[in-house]
Design goal:
Blueprint (H helix, E strand, L loop, with lengths): L4 E8 L3 H8 L5 H4 L5 E4 L12 E8 L1 E13 L3 E7 L5 H4 L2 E10 L2 E9 L6 H11 L1 H18 L9
Length: 162
């Protein structure tokens, strides 16, 4: 972890557009989630995420809860990021982490970079300390990219998979 940002990368053998289509569809996030925490959308999700879009997600980490995310970075087929946390009274205590995906076209595919940016998070010191000890977030992120790879390379027309 560099400062308060943890980053993992994976080369995926499809064009950036194929990867971005999955990332820009919140309904597909539980399919790629390597943590097992995402349980599905909380409300009718927009067809495609865009800058400023807010979307909800049912979560489970021992207990069920929900979170709301807002898209804070968006560059078509290159970058998407959302800031996550509960709204309301808890927001000032536990909100602020950013999940970011950057896509870099490469010969034969796309370098996908996933970042967990806790710089603006109110619990950043505790989150970093806990992750240094467990390494869970890195493992979950690596699994997320592996699941994303499997999903997009199995897409008809991607030139890969089935």
């Amino acid at each position: 972890m560099d400062g308060f940002v943890l980053t993992v990368e994976r080369m995926i053998r499809v064009p950036p557009e194929v990867v971005f289509d999955v990332l820009a569809d919140a309904a597909q996030h539980p399919l790629i989630d390597g943590s097992g925490m995402l349980q599905g959308g909380k409300e009718a999700e927009p067809q495609r995420l865009a800058l400023g879009t807010t979307f909800g997600m049912a979560m489970k980490l021992g207990v069920h809860y929900s979170t709301v995310s807002t898209v804070v970075e968006f560059e078509e087929n290159r970058r998407i990021a959302w800031k996550t946390g509960p709204k309301g009274r808890l927001e000032r205590f536990v909100a602020g982490r950013i999940w970011r995906y950057e896509l870099e076209p490469r010969d034969g595919g796309t370098l996908v970079r996933e970042s967990w940016d806790i710089t603006p998070d109110h619990q950043r010191t505790l989150l970093k300390l806990g992750d240094i000890w467990s390494g869970k977030t890195r493992r979950d992120m690596e699994l997320t990219l592996a699941r994303l790879d499997t999903l997009v390379t199995a897409v008809p027309g991607s030139g890969q998979g089935a």
